[in-house]
Amino acid sequence: MAQNQVKIFDSTLRDGAQGQGISFSLEDKIKIVKALDDMQIDYIEAGNPGSNPKDMEFFKRLKDVELKTAKVVAFGSTRKPNINAEDDKNLKDLLSSGADTIVIFGKAWDFQVTDIIKTSLDENIEMIKDTIKYLCKKKKEVIFDAEHFYDGYKENKDYAIATLKAAEEAGAQVVVLCDTNGGTLPQEIYDITKVVKGQITIELGIHGHDDMGMAVANSIMAVEAGSRQVQGTFIGIGERCGNANLSAIIPILKLKLGYEILNNNELVNLTKSARYIAEICNITLTDQIPFVGSSSFAHKGGMHIDAVTKAPKSYEHIEPELVGNKRRFLVSEVSGKSTILQEIKKIFPNISKDDISVQKITDRLKELEYEGYQFEGAEGTVELVIRKIIGKYKPFFKLNHFKIIGEQPYGSEDFSSTAVINITVDGQNEMTAAEGEGPVNALDKAIRKALEVFYPELKQARLVDYKVRVLDSENATEAKVRVLIESTDGIENWSTVGVSRDVIQASWIALVDSIEYKLIKDIEKKVKAYF
Amino acid sequence: MAQNQVKIFDSTLRDGAQGQGISFSLEDKIKIVKALDDMQIDYIEAGNPGSNPKDMEFFKRLKDVELKTAKVVAFGSTRKPNINAEDDKNLKDLLSSGADTIVIFGKAWDFQVTDIIKTSLDENIEMIKDTIKYLCKKKKEVIFDAEHFYDGYKENKDYAIATLKAAEEAGAQVVVLCDTNGGTLPQEIYDITKVVKGQITIELGIHGHDDMGMAVANSIMAVEAGSRQVQGTFIGIGERCGNANLSAIIPILKLKLGYEILNNNELVNLTKSARYIAEICNITLTDQIPFVGSSSFAHKGGMHIDAVTKAPKSYEHIEPELVGNKRRFLVSEVSGKSTILQEIKKIFPNISKDDISVQKITDRLKELEYEGYQFEGAEGTVELVIRKIIGKYKPFFKLNHFKIIGEQPYGSEDFSSTAVINITVDGQNEMTAAEGEGPVNALDKAIRKALEVFYPELKQARLVDYKVRVLDSENATEAKVRVLIESTDGIENWSTVGVSRDVIQASWIALVDSIEYKLIKDIEKKVKAYF
């Protein structure tokens, strides 16, 4: 392999599945494999067929899935102590998985051999050798994961190295040094990897965990010391604090260190892929996640926004577009007219900065902020404020009245919430009611039910996130509340916000914005399709 | 300063406030300052008095807050180009903030001088010198934040160093090398810091950002190269991808590298403090966050659980108790009992650890946690759970029913909430109603009104804080909510918690606990006074 190439190895489906709350269906797994293959990930670890019948089923199913470049990998342990490799059930399962590449993990820390698997140090070496020899004879590419390598090296250097040499001799193509507990410091990773590099001739890899928040740095340090395979999970999921986050490691290796991985087209899909995989994992990526988060290139301070407008490199270490992300200016009290002008231009590109509406919109947003609104991540409401002032808005319905009833006890239930609503659209009246989990859920159901009579396209839209923030909470239940709603139609997401002394009214304001925003976007699409 | 001491500098209230969605009330800020002081954080950067009138107000308020050891710091920039330091409004504001320690940030990257603040390289050096000299003359301790230092060093080494020398000459006590854009690699941080260490005699600091997910590692590398101040935010909030996460840096410095920071007692409070600060910031700490997350020491794989049971160091790089966190097994719930025993002993000092109630209480609390309860900062509810199981509890009233009515429009008002309640105390029935700002406020008023007939001492009690947290917010308005209530009678404060799919019911649960807790405490006081 060329010196400037690094292979990327994803374990979302194996080590990632050990993360809290992660559970994949067979279809989820197929989707993730395809997404990783689209990203040109070199190795995809698909499961442990010997320990999990579902994984075995998945390997069978995978035989029918055509991949562009990725190699599917099966994971399993060295043979059991004191038996022949041929007789080990786990190894049989690895072979019948059909995977051409096998990861074998084995103990590299003497304490783990004697105290956990309770066998002799010599037998453990034999287990590594036998297992790998056997798989090589069966024409498999073998990667040896030296579990707890760094911890083992620190306690018994010679033994840890001996396990690697056993794997090398037996025919493994790569030995991967694992920081299984995530407790090794970056400098230690560098120094130890460097020593190993001098003693092992086959390729080295790194497998890091994030227990100290340093798995990305540790992976980079290992590469700088000579590792040429990086194992991790695409969005960092995994047991405890997770595995090394590949969506950070990939752009660092490529953009900062110039290694040959993927190609430019794939890097541009990084953000989209990370969000797609998060969706399948049913987890919310934190806004702050490096490179691919919604805040990764979001600027709030007025001075920063000003400087980034002059020269992006002022407060951006790379161009967001390189990883398919985008710059955002958070509309907040600290930011001024120039930020707001950028927002207006997204909707009305030809507006001049001296247009009287710009000042009016700025004043209105400030007034709302003073009342407790916060427009960061509430672009839907910002667009509606802009449209209302510029005059490119008309209401989609008129509320006549609504009523919420909460009762405890309620029949056999503890508690119940019901909403009754009465609206008018184009002179036509619609009255309906719905029960829900809480007053806001009931109101959400009722208004949708009423509006879908007139706007059936609303059926595609639903709420995905609902946040309540009590403002000045020292006033306790009399305090103002801010409600932030995120909605989706399956393609686009949008957020809206409402503030009131009453949580129901605040929710209502945000709900109405959410619905109107969706209806405006649908009209825009129709107009675009027509012209 | 001793060679093995590192000072911890927290910027939650300044740089942290630049994070998306972060907005602090004055009371929030006071709470955070106190929590940081309790943790023995050395420096607390409280705001930028020159750029924000709210920050100035906060500094005035801080004068009345007594701190144990922390120094409060005001942040501002070097004087404007071509004026005298005496005439600079920002410097005047810094002085009138009353803070004894001032952070001055200045440009260390030539490009930022010429292209962003648009002055000459020489004038920038003068700005640094004048500003620091002026503040030193006013007897302030000055820390110089060399903004973009690492980027600047890479493009113009001599100029970057010259800015540090200017600060040193002018009397600064510390120069902090900032990786403002978060784009510097760990090895670069180490090498550059090492060079600077050889040229500057005053103390060095590091200020990292997490744009590549390496701010923790970068901070550690800087310390290993000689930095003795680490700037960050306690839970890593901040602009874009956030600042260096102190809740990871602190235990690494202390437990892995043996630096003298905080003391053992404070480290034990790390998890509790991080969660408390997150609560005030109204953000949800990810389960995966190092050291202090709910999953940081959570094991899922059967093999791992087995090994950890044999020897925790098998899959834990430190003992979770060292940072006040705990081990969790995600499949079968175990442990926690000894912590709970401590809680029980607070109320019933003579209980034996083998008492059957201890197991029952442990089971009940775990069950509630599984439902979404969180007992950190909800001691009132914990006491009631304990009392109910031990049998030292009897209800103070019986709820017959309540009804909440919300109406929009309502007479001349936009919206109104009304609560009707019917209770029985000692066979005597009381029915009443109240209007409020929102359904929960109405319910709070109604239940108090009804109960005060029987328990006039409740008149002294009132709510001081009311927080709503949406759990599993992906289920939007159908999600579970957790309501945390803080109450006071003017002498003591207590907190209670309720969880339900319905915000009104969750609030009701927490309200009832709050009222019953108060009534129990009043009885206890009467008993004590009598005997």
From TrEMBL, chains A, B:
Residues making up the signal peptide according to the UniProt record: none
Gene3D superfamilies, per the entry: 1.10.238.260, 3.30.160.270, Aldolase class I
Cross-referenced SMART domains: LeuA_dimer
Residue stretches in coiled coil: none
Cited InterPro entries: 2-isopropylmalate_synth_dimer, AIPM/Hcit_synth_CS, Aldolase_TIM, Citramal_synthase, LeuA/HCS_post-cat, LeuA_allosteric_dom_sf, PYR_CT
The EC number(s) this enzyme carries: 2.3.3.21
Domain Pyruvate carboxyltransferase intervals: 6-268
PROSITE patterns: AIPM_HOMOCIT_SYNTH_1, AIPM_HOMOCIT_SYNTH_2, PYR_CT
Lineage: superkingdom: Bacteria
Protein name: Citramalate synthase
